[in-house]
Protein 1
Amino acid sequence: MSDAKDFAFTLTGLRIPYFPGCTLKTTAQNFESSAVAAARALGIELVELPRWNCCGTVFSLAADDLIHHVASIRNLIRVQEMNRQGLVDGENRMVTLCSMCYNTMKRANLRVRQNAEDIKKINDLMYREEDYQGNVRVIHFLELLREIGMGKVKRAVKKDLAGLKVAPYYGCMILRPKEASIDDPEAPTVLGEVLRALGTDVVVTPYNKVCCGSYQTVHDKDAVAGLAYDILGHARKSGAEAIATTCPLCAFNLDNRQKEVAEKHPDFEHMPVFYITQLMALAFGVDQGVLRFDQNYVDPVPLLKKHSLLDK
Amino acid sequence: MVKKMIISSENEEFMRKIIELSGEIVTMCDQCGTCSGGCPMVGEMDITPSQLMRLAQLGVSDVLDSRTIWVCASCFTCTVRCPRGLDVSKVAEAMRQIILRQAIDRIDIRAIPKEELEKLPQIAMVSACRKFTS
C-alpha cells in the first residue's frame, strides 16, 4: 500500500463492522479492550454489531444440519444493515477477534454462499429478518493487519518490545480447514509478522499449530493439561518467555490450565499467555489501562517489568 | 487377482448413513494412516482415526461405542492433510450425531462442580454443549 493511501486511512479511519462474541464480553475482556485501542492507533474503528448473537462457537459439520447455521447468518444480516445505514465503510466485511467465531461464521457463510438452496432455507427460517443476500465477507483481525501492512503496524510502535521472546501460537481455527485458513495451514507466519513488527524476538516452535484440546477442557482437564504442557514446554525449550494467541479458548487452555499442568509436573515453569492485541497496545503506547492483565491467569507483569515495558 | 469383500446389508446401511450425514465418501479412504499420525488427541483414543475410517467403510456400527469419536476435538489437522481429500472430522461428527440424535448425551453439565463451571469461559461451555449434548 502506498504512503498516500496510508495517510488517508489515518485521517478518516476505517470503520469496520466488528463481531465480539460472548467470551470477549466476559473472561476475555482484555482481548477486546486491547484490540479496540490497538486498532484505533492504526486508524481502524471496530464498530460493534448492534443486536449481535452467539455465533454457535462450532461450525456444524453434519451435512443435513442447517438450523445451527442460522445464528451465524443472522449476524451477517446485521452487517448488511450497517452497510446500508452508512455506519461503516463499504466493502461488506465483518471482522472478528475470536478465532472460533471467525471459523464458525466464515464456514457458515461459505456454505450458504455456495448453495442457493441452503441460503433460501435459512432465510425462510428467519421470517422476521430481511433476507441475507450472501454478500458479506467474514475476516479475522489478523487479515486486516496484513491488509493495512506490517509496515504501518511497525510505524505505529512507540516503544518497541525488543528483547521480549514470544512464541506465536495459532491454534486451529484460523488455520484449518483450508477453506477457512488465513495463512498456510502447515507453515503459518502472520502472527510472527505482527510480533516482529512490534520488535519482539519471535520464537517459532513446532507446536505452534497443535490443538490445545479445545472444548475437551470442560470434562477432560487432564487431556488438555497434557497438551498445554507439550505446547508450553516446547515454547520454553525453544527460548520463549511468553505465548501470543488470538483465541480465547486456546488462551484459557494454555493460561488457566497451567494450574493443572503445575500440579502434574512439579518442574513446570509458568509462562504468560498474551493476546496479540495486548502486545500491540503495549507497543503502541496507548493507555495501559486497556491491557487488563487482571484477566490473565499467569501474571505477565514481572516479565514485562524485567524488560522495562510497563509505565508503573 | 481381484479380491471382493461383501458386507451385509445391515453394515451397508450403516456405511451409507455415515456417508449421508458426513458428506464424505468414506470408501475412498486408502488407509494410509496420515490422519492417525498427525492427530494431537490420538494418545487419548482407543482406536486411531484411520481405524475409525476402516470401520466406517465396513459399516461396523460398534464404532459408535469407541472413545475416539468423543475425543476428537475437531481441530481439522487430519482434514488438511488427507491425501484423498477426506474430512475425518466430519465422519466422527456423523457418528456423534447418530448417538446425540437419540437424545443420549455424552456429558452431564450438572455433574460438573459449580466452582469449575464458574471458571469456564462461555466459548468452552457452548462448544462442549454443542458437541456433547443433544
Note: The mean pLDDT of chain B is 96.
Protein 2
Amino acid sequence: MMKRPFFGIATPKLKYDVIEDVQPEPVSVQPKQRVTLFIEKAYDRADKTLIKKGDAVARGQRLQLFDEDPAAYALSPVSGVISEISPFIGMMEKQMTAVVIDTESDREDDRDTAFKKVSGTPSIEDAARFLGRLPGKPDFTQFTDADRTVKTIAVLGADRDLQAITGQYIIKSGISSVKTGIDILRKITGVQNIVLVVAQHQVQVAGTAAAGVRSVDAHYPSAHPEMIIRHLLAEQAEQGQIAFLTAEAVAGIGAAYNTGELPLEKLITVVKKDGTRQLVTAPVGTHAADILGAVNEQVENGDRLIMGGPMTGDAVYSLEHPVEPDTDAIMVQDKEAIVEGTDTPCTNCGECVRICPANIPVNELVRLLDAGEYEQAAEQAALFSCIECGLCAYVCESRIPIFQFIRLAKHAVKRMRAAEEANA
Amino acid sequence: MPNPTKLTVSHAPFLHDGSEISNKQYNIIAATLLAVIAGLLQYGIPALGVLTLSVGSAMAWELLMNLLTRRPVSIGDGNAALIGLLFAMLLPAVVPWWLVVTGTFVAVVIGKQIYGGIGGNPFNPVVVAYAILMISWPMFLDFNAALVDYQFDFTAGFPLVLYKAYGTAGLESFSPGGLLLGQQAGGIGATFGLGLIIGGIYLILRGFIRWEIAVSFLAGIFITALCFNLYNPEVYAGPVFHILTGYALIGAFFLAPEDSSSPVHFTPMLIYGLLGGFLTVLIRNLGAHVDGVIYAILIINLVHPIIDKIRPKAMRRVMHHA
C-alpha cells in the first residue's frame, strides 16, 4: 500500500484502513506520575495567572489561564498538584502554555463539580465553557462566532488520516452515545440538520443514530472536511454554514450531559513500528512514554514519534509529549523506515499535480516557494487552496518536503498580512 | 530525564511512495536498450564507440560542472548518462570523436547545467545539442554521407532525404514492416521502430513518461500527414511512413516527454504533443529541413510554459477558517 505501484500509469491511491470485525477492547492506560496539558495561549513567566504552581486541582477541573480570556483553558484529567507552568511553542510558532500536573493517587476520587451544577440545563455557553477540551476537541466557536450561521452539523465518524481507526471504533462500539450527543447538540445549537459522515462499511451501523448518514469512499483524503463539503454537502456549502465535530466529541458531549461527569479518556490508535495497531484509552495529557510503555513498544535513538497520523501528524522531539484532545493516533516509525527529504530541485514530473485533490499547480507553487515568493504563490499558484493532505510530498520523486514548504509559506503570508493590518 | 531518547523530527508526511529520480532515469535507459542493441547489431563496433564515448563524456561533463559549481555530485542519478545515451542514439554510427564530445558538452553544460541542473532546463538538452550540431556541422550528420561505407541489404539512402528529393516516388522500396524492423538508414538507436515502441509502452505503463504527450505527438504526426496525403498522395507520403522514419518514434517516446521541458496538466500535454507532431510533418513536407522532429520539439519546449497555464481552477476553500 505504501509504495508506488509497479504499473504507475494510473494515479496511486492511498486507502484508509478498515477496522477489523473483531476488535479487542482498548487497553486502558493511566498516567504515571504526571500529565501535561496545553492551553492555546501565549504565556510569559511574569504573567499573573489564575492558576499557580502548587495549586491542588481536582479531576475535571477547568484550568483557565487568564481572567480576561475564558476560551484559553484546559480540563484537568486527574487529581493532583500543578508542578509547572511554562511557555511551549508548537508547530509553526504556535504559542501555547504547558501545564504539568503531578498526580496524587490518594486523591483519586476528588472530582470537580462545577459542570455537574449546570448540566441539568444544557446550553451552548456552558458547553463552550466546559466541553471544548473533551476528547475529540469540539470547536464550539463554530456556533458562537457571530459572523457564522451554521445550518448543518457534520459529525465525522470516519478517520481523517491513514492507519487510525479511532473514529471507526467510536461508531462501531459507541453509536448509542453518539446518538445521545446528537440529540443534545440539536437542543443546544438549534441546528436540526445533522449528518453523520462515516466510512462506507459503517453506513448500516450509523443509520441508527437518528441523523442523516453520508459515506466517504476509501481513498485518502476523502474524509477531509474540505473534501466532504465538496463532494457530499456541496448544496449546503456556503461560507461557514457547515460545522464539523468528531464523533468522539459528540459522544463525549452526550455522556457529559447524561452523567454530569466530564469524560476525559481519549481513544487513541497506537501504530507500532511493525505496522500493527492497538487501541488505547488514556486521559488527555498522558505522556506518549506511558502509553508506549503500556503496549510494550520500544523507542530507540533515531526513531520517529508521531502524534497524529502518517500524512498530517506532527513528529515530536520528546517521549514526554502528551496526548492532546485531538490526538487520534500515535505512531512510532523505525529509523530504518524513515525516508529523508532532499534539496534536489523539482524535475517537473507532475506527479503532485495529478494527485492533488485541490487542483493546485504544485509544480509552479513549489518553484515560487523555493524562491521565497510567498505573496506571489498566494496570488498565482493557489497557495491557500491547499487542504494540507500531504499527498504531494508523498509522491514527490525529488523528495522535496513540499507540505512543509506550503505550511511555512501560509504561516509567513498570514503573519505578513497580520502585520500589514496592524500597521494600516 | 538524564539521557532522553533522541528522536528524528521532521515534517509530515511520514510516508513516501519510494519513487526517486535515479530509478526513473535507469528505467528509461533500460527502455532504450532494445533499440540500442538493434542499432549495435546493424552498425557494429563504430556505433558502440560512439555510444560509449557519448555516455562517458556526458557523465564527465556533469561531474566537471558539479565540481566547478560546487554542487553535490549528481552523476549517480543517471540523468547525464541518459542524456549521453539519447544523444548517441540520434547520431550516425560513424562520426568524429570530437563531434560526440562537443555534442555532450552542449547537452549537459549548455542544455542543462547552466540552468542549475536537473529540472531547470527549459529545452530538452539532447535536442538542443543535436540542433546546434546540425547547424554547425551538417555534413557529419548527413546519414547518406556518414554511412557510405556500410553495405545494407535494404535501400541505403536515408528515407527522409529520398522523400525530400523525389516525393513518394522515392519511397517505393520501403515497406512499413521493414521500416518497423529497422530496415532503414538512420541514427544508431532511432531506426528500430518496434524496439522504440516496446520501450515507449513499457515507460507509459510504468508511469515514467506521460502517455498523453507520446500519444498526442504521434497523433499529431498521423493526422497532419494524413491531411497532406489526402490532399495530394503523389507528393505527400502517408502517415505510417512519417511515423516510422527519422526521429518520429524516438522523439515521441524519449525526447518530447522529457520532464522538465514539457507540461504536466492534461489539456496542455495534448496540445503540446499535437503541436509537436503537426510541426514535424509541416517541416518535413514544406520546410527546408530533412527531419522536422528536432526543431518541432525545440518549438514546443519553448511554448510549454505558456500552454501549461491552461489548467483546472484550483479548489475554492469553503471552510470558514484555515
Note: The longest helix of chain B spans residues 45-68.
Protein 3
Amino acid sequence: MSFTRMMEGNEAAAWGVKLSRVEVIPVYPITPQTELISAIASMIASGEMKAQYIKVEGEHTAMAAAIGASAAGARVFTSSAAQGILYMEEALWMPPGMRLPIVMCIVNRALAPLGGLRPDHNDSLLQRDTGWIQLYCENSQEVLDTIIQAYRIGEDRRVYLPVAVCYDGYFVSATATPVTVPGQEEVDRFLPPYKHELYSLMPEDYRRPQWGTNIARARYEVQKAMERAKGVIEEVDRSYRASFGRGYDGLLEEYSCEDAEAVLITMGSMTGTARDVIDEMREEGRRIGLVKMRCFRPFPSEELREMAKRYHAIGVVDRNTSYGSAGGGIIALEIARALYPLDDRPLLLDFHVGLGGSDVTMNQIRYMADRVLEALDRGKVEEEVEWVELLDLGEVM
Amino acid sequence: MDKEKIFEEHYKRSLIRAGTACCPGCGGPLFWRMALEALGPKTIIYGDGPCAYCAIRNILVPTLGIHFSFVADGATGIAAALAAKGRDDITVVSSAGDGATADISFNKVSAAAERNENIIQICIDNEAYMNTGIQKSGLTPFGAWTTTTPRGKETPKKRIPMILAQHRVPYVATVSVAYPADLKAKIAKAKGIRGFKYIHSVIPCPTGWRFDPAKSVEVVRLGVQTWAWPLYEVENGILRLTVKPKARPIEEYLMAQGRFRHLTKEEIELIQREVDEERHRLLEYDGKSIIH
C-alpha cells in the first residue's frame, strides 16, 4: 500500500532501494550519504528488506564488489559522495565497458581542498566521461522515484549501462519534504526482475559481451547505448507517470516557459528556489522561464537545440568549477558545444554559484535572471562568466 | 579420433588450455592445472591483471578480472550474488600476484579476511613485479636482485600467510608446485570450508629469478627443502607442518638462481640464521595454536 509522509532525501533513497528489490549492497559511509546506508541497514536488520549488505573497507572496494555482484547476476546498489567518488574512480570506468546496470546514489558534496560537507556538483560531474548515466534530483520524492526508474533504464537491453542518481547533500539528503511511497506490488509491476541477456558468470551459462579485440568498437557500443538511453529515459519516465501519477519530463523540465524569451538552466536542489523567483518575476511581467536539467549524461543536446529556437538568451547556473576551461563551468561548456551547430545561436551567460555548498539564494537567482534579460535587451553578453558569490548583492548571509 | 578432438577433451577435463602467454618455465599454468583439478568446473575465478592473468586467460571456468589494485573485492560481490541467489554449489576463487596481495591490495585481502568472505583467496607469488619487468614487491626476499633493488633487497619478505592467520580466518595454507599432492589436498580442503580461506604459493619465475626454465620445479623444491618456503597449514588457529624435510643449506637454493648471485658469504650466513630460526619456531608450534 502506498503512503505519504515527511521524509529526508536519504530515507527516501532507502525506500527506493527497498522497493527496487535490490539483492546486493556494498557500501562505505561518508557524510552526507551515511544516513542512507544506515536506513538500509535498519530495514535489513528488521527483516523488512532482504539483501546482502556488505560493509566494505572503502569506496574502491564498494564499486569493485558491485561489479562482481552485478556480473554474477544480482541487482546491485551502492552510494557515496565527494572524496569517496574520487576514491572509487578507478573502478567507475568498469561497469559501462562491461555493460553492467549498477545503480549508485551520489549525494553531492564539495571536494577538498576548501570544500566543506555541503554540496556542489564537481564530484559527480567529474565522472562525466566514464560512461555512467547521470540523473539529478530536486527533492526527496524525485530521489525515490528516480532510483526505481534508474533500474529500469539501466537494465533495458537497449542500454545496459550504470546509472548515477545524484542529489545535493543536506539540501536534499537531510531536508524533509512530503514523499509518497508507492506500494511494492505497483513497483513490481513497473520493474521486472533483473536478467542480463549479454552477461552471465554462472558456470552452466557463462557468457559475456563479445566486442572482439577492437577497443574502438567496444567504446562505440557504449556511446551508442548512451545515445539510445535518451529515448529510454523519456519512455521510462512517461511510463512511470502512467503507473504512479508522477513524472519529471524525461531529460529536461521546462517550468513557466510559455512565451518566455530567455531561460535560466538549473540543476539539483537550487531548482526549488528558482521556481519561486521565476514565479515572482513572471507576475512582474518579465518574460523569463526556467529549465531544470534532470539528465546530464547522456547530454540532451537535441532538446536544447529545440529550446534555443525559442529562447534568445540562456543563463546557465553552474554549481561547479572547471579551472582554466574554455569558459565557465562544466554545464555551460556542454551547452555551448550542443548549440554550436545552430545558425542562429542564443546569447549564453554562465554563472558560478553555490560553490562549496553555500546557499543559492533568491536574490542571487534574481540577479542572474536580470543579467540574462539585460543581455537580451542589449543584444550582447557583457560578461560571459560571473562568480555570483563574489558580488555584493546586499544580502545578509 | 582426430588429434584436435583429443586435445579438446583433455582441455575440458583439465579446465585449462595450453598455449598460455606465460614465459617458459612459469609456475602459473602449472599451479592452475593442479588447483583446477581440486576445484572442479563449478568454480568462478576472480583474478587480477598482469602475470597471473596470462594463465587465467586460458582457464575454462568463468573468470572476471579487473586490475591488480582490485583483489578479493570483486570476489566478495560474486559471493554475495551467489548467496542472494541461494547458489551454494559454486566455489569462488580470488587470485592475485604477490605485488597485488602484499602491496597495492593488501587492505583488500585483510578486509575480506576480516569479513570472513566465503572465498578462496590465492596468492601466486613469484616474488617481484614480474609483468612490468622484475621490480621489487613486498614479497621479494631479502637480498634478491630486481631492477629496482640492483644491489639486492634491503628488507625481508612480508609473512603474509601468518598475518592472514592472525585475522583468525578458518584456513590458511602455503603450497608449492613441487609438491602437487600437498597442493591439491590443501585446495580440496579449502573448498570444503565455509568462510575465508587463504592459499599462498611461491611459484618459480625463471625470467625474474634468473635460472634455466627447465629447472623450475627443481628450484622451488629446493626452496621447500631448505625451508626458505616451508609448507604448512593453519586450520582454526592450529599450525601443522605438512612437509618436514631434513633441512638442506640455504646456499643451495640461493645459488641455483642468478638473482642471489651477488650475495656475500656473510649475507648468506645471515639468511641461513633467519631460516633456521623460523624453522625452529615452526617446529615448536607444529600441532599447536598460533593464535594468542
Note: The longest helix of chain A spans residues 215-244.
Protein 4
Amino acid sequence: MTSDPHIKARRENIFVAIGVVFVVACLPLFVTDVYVQNVLVLTLMYAALSQSWNILSGFCGQISLGHALYFGTGAYVTELLFTKFGVAPWFGMPAGGLVAAVIAAAVGYPCFRLKGHYFVIATIVIAEAGYLLMLNWDYAGAAQGIDIPVRADSWAKFQFLRSKLPYFYFALGFAFVAWLVTYMIEESRWSYWWRAAKDNADAAESLGVDVFRSKMAAAALSAFLTAVGGGFYAQFVSYIDPESVMGFQFSLLMALPAVLGGLGTLWGPAVGAGILIPLTELTRSFAGGSGKGLDLIIYGLLVMGIALGRPEGIVGAVTKRARKGRP
Amino acid sequence: MTAQAVAQSLVSGLLMGLIYALVAAGLALVFGLMNVVNFAHGEFLMTAMYAAFGLFVAVSLDPLLAAPFVAAAMFIFGSVVYLGVVRFAMSASANAGMVQIFATFGLGVVMRGLAQLLFTPNYRSIPHSWLGGRTMQIAGVYLPAPQLAGACVSLATFGALWLIINRTDFGRALEATREDSGAVALVGIDRKRIFALGWGLGAALVGLAGAVLAIFFYIYPDVGASFSLIAYVTVALGGFGSVFGAFAAGILVGLVEAGSALVLPASLKYVGVYALYLLVVLVRPRGLFGSL
Amino acid sequence: MDDGKEREPRMKLNRREIMTGAAVLAAAPRVARAQGAGEILIGAVFPMTGSTAQTGLDAKNAIETAAAIINDKTDLDLPLARGAGLPGFGGAKVRVIYADHQGDPQKGRAEAERLITQEKAVALIGCYHSAVSATVSQTAERYALPFMCADSSSPSLSRRGLKFFFRASAHDEMFSSAMFDLMDSLRAKGQKIETLALFHEDTIFGADSANVQTKLAGERGYRIACDVKYRANSPSLTTEVQQIKSAAADVLMPSSYTTDGILLVRTMNELGYKPRAIVAQAAGFSEQALYDAVGDLLHGAITRGSFSLDLAQKRPMVARVNDLFKARAGKDLNDNSAREFMALIVLADGVNRAGTTDGEAIRAALTATDIPGDRTIMPWKGVRFDATGQNNGCDPVLLQYDGRKFVTVFPLLAAISEPVWPMNS
C-alpha cells in the first residue's frame, strides 16, 4: 500500500507538520525578544483558532462570523471557574470547550437549515446577543470584566510573570492539535458527505440525516477548540471583559487567516496566520502611534489586496500554479 | 409608564424605523441586484455624513438641501467602488462569497483610516440647521422635525425606487440582470454597466440617508458601526432580493427596538431586535419577502 | 479528491511559505534604539485609532506640552520647569514614545512590553480605557517599573495591591463624592433635591460611575427615580430619554462619552424634556465637541472635572500652560488633557529625584513625591501617594457651563461664583 501516491501524500503531510512543529519549537532559541515572542504566540493562537473555524466554515461550508461567542465562552468559563472557585485553568479550558460545544449544537440545530447570508447574519446576531448579555451579567463582572491576579510563575495556575515560553509552547501544541483534527477530518466520511452535499443536491437529500448530524458534530468540535483558545487567551492576557473577548472583531480575525491562506484547505489557516498576524502587529506598532489612521489604511489595503489578488487563498494559488506548471 | 410614554416610544420607533429602512435601502438594492453584501456599508454612510458636513462648513448648505448633491457624489463614488473593487471580487475564481465579504470589509477599514487621516478623529456635528432642534407636539406626543423629515425622505425614496424598478427601462434591466445575469448578455444588456449603475444608485441612497442623519446625528470616522449591523439585519429580515422587504423590515426593527427598550433594560434592547430576526428566519428561511 | 501527484508540490511550496513567514518574524524590525545619551525614555500607551482616537491625540498633545516644559528652560512654577531637562541626570531630556492600543487590553499589554523591552522605557503612562490600564499596569508590575495612570478613573485599578501603580488624579468615588457634596451643600441652602435620574452607558466607565452614585445616593438620602443603562453608541436614545423624562427627577446625572452625550441632549430637546439640573460625570460633558454641537441647550449644566481654567485667575501659570497646549492642539485643556499633562510632570519629577533609571529606585522616589498644590495646574491640595499609589489630595471641581465657558462653582476653595440652580432659571 505504500506505493499508493495518495497515502504517500497523506504521510508526507504528517512529516511536514512534525517538521514545522520542530522548527517552530526551536525558534525561541533565536528569538529572545518578548515582543516578537508575543507576536509568535498570537500567530500560533490565531493559526489554531482559524483552523478550528475552518472545520465548520471551510470544510463543512457553514460560514460563521459569530465564533467570538465560543471564544468568549471559553475565556469566561475558564476565568469564572478560576477566580470564583479556584479551579485550575487546565480543567477550566476543557470545561469552557464543553460549554461552547453545547451552545454550538444548540445554535446549529435550528440554524443549519438557513442558507448563505441568512446563516452568516444569524451567527453574527447570536454572538452579538451573547456579547450584550455578558455586558449586563453582574456575576461575571459585567462591563468591568475579570482581572486575573498574577503574583508568581506557576504551572499549576498556568500563569507566568514575564516569560512567554510556556504560552508559546502551549499555543504551538494547540495549533498542532487543531491541525491534526483537521487532518483527520479531511479524509473522514464527514468530509466526503459535506462535499457531496455541496456539489450535488440529490446526494444531499439521500444523506440528509447523516449530513445534519455530522454538521452538528463539526460545529461542536469547532466551538470546543475555539473555546480552548479563548481560555488560553484569557490566561495569556490575564484580564478579560466582554469587549476584549467577545467583540465582533474576533469573529473576523478568526476567519481572515483561513480565507487568506485557503478556505477549506489543510494548510490554509496556518499559512494565513503566519503572514497576517505578524503584519497586523507590526503595522500597529510602527504606524499606530501617529494617530493618523495609517495603520488602518495599511491593514485594510492588505486585506483587500489579498482577498482580490488571491481569491482561492495562498495555498490554493500555489497548488494551481503547480498544476499549471505540470505537463 | 403612562400610555402617553408608550405612544411616544412607538411613534419614535416608527420614525426611526423608516430611517433604518432608508439606511438599508442601498444595501438591499445592491444585494438584490448581484448577491453581494457590502461590508463597507457603514463606511459609505460615514462618507455621506462627512460630505453633508463638508457642504455645511464650506458653503453653509443646509443638509436637507445638500442631500441631492451628496447623493450625486455618492452615486459616482459607488460606481467607482464597483469598477475598482467589487467587479474583481465578483469575478473571483473561488470562494466568491468570502472574497466579497473581505474585499468590502478591507475597503471599509481603509475608508475609516482615510477619514481619520483627512478629517481627524474629532466628533463633528452640524450645530444649526433648519430642522435641527425643532419639534412639534400632537396630543402630548413629540415629533422631532429631523426624524420626521427623515421618515418623509424614506417614504419618497421607496416610492421613487418602486417607480424606477417597475416603470423604467433601467429598472427592467436591473430586474432582468438580477434574475438571470447570464441570459441578459444575450439580449444586449451590458451587465457591467448595469451593475455599475446599480452600485451608484445604492450608494446614492446611502447618500440620502447620510444627509438626513447629519441633521441630528454626530459624525466621526467610526460612526458607521452604529448603523451597519442594524442595516444588515434589516436587509436579511426583509429578505435578500426584496427592496421592499427592507422597507417593511426597517419599520419593524424600529418598532421592536423601541418596544424592547420599554420592557427590557435599555442596554439589552438590541437583543430584542436580534431575537426578532432569528424568529422570522427560523419560520421563514428567506426572510419576510425574500426571493433568494 | 486530489491525487498525490498534485499534493506533493503543494507541500513543498507550503514549506517555503511557512519558512518565509518564520523569516519575516525572525527579522522583525528591531528598532530598539539604545537609550540615547542625554535622553530618558517614557512610554505612553493610548488609543490612537478607533472610536476614542481623538482622546489619544489630545493626550499626546498634552504630554508633549509637558515634555517641552520639562526639556526647555521656562519660568513656570512647575516641577522641573525652570531648568532644561532633568537635573538628576545632568540635564538629560525626557522623550516620550507613543503606542496605540486601539482600546484592546491585549494590544495595550503587547505595546507596553515592546516599550519596556525594545525601547527601554523607564516608566509608562496611560491608558484612558480602564480595561487597558488594568493590563498595562500589570505588565509594568511584572517588569518592576512604574505605571502612571493618567486618566483612567476606575476605583478598582488602585485596589489590586500593585506596588508600581500610581495615580495622581482622582478616581470615580472621589469624583462622585464631590458631585454629592455639591448637592448636599445646595440642600443645606434650602434647594429641594430629592430624586436623581442616573443615565449611564454599559461600559466599565458607565458601570463604575453608576455603582458609586447608587451607593452614595443611599448613604446621603437621595432617591434614585430611574437608572437607565443604555447601549453605548446606539443610533437612537428616544425610549431611554422617555424614561428619564417620565421619572422627572430633580437632577439628571449622565455618564456618557461625547457621541452619546450629543445624542442625549438633542433627544431631550426633541422630546421636550428640560431637566431641572444636570450634574455630569465629565467624559463627554467636558469635551469641546459636545458644546460645539449642543452648547445652547446646556446653559447651566454642571460637570465634575479635574481641571478648571478659572484657576488662572489665582494662578496665572495655568493660563500660560493652557496657551502652550492650545498652540499644539487648537483647544483648551480639559478634564482629560490636564490630567495627562500632570501625569508626565509628576512622573518625570519622580524619575529625576531617583537619579537612576532603575524601576525600584523610581518607585521609591515616586512614593516620596510631595508636590504642593500650587506647583501644579490643578485645583489640588498637592500630590502625595498613599500605600495603594493613589493621590488623595486631588480634589475634583464642579464646573458650570454658562453658555460660553465653564465657571468653577464648587468646592468653595476653588469656586469663583455660586452655582445657578436649577439650571434653566
Note: The first strand of chain A starts at residue 146 and ends at 147.
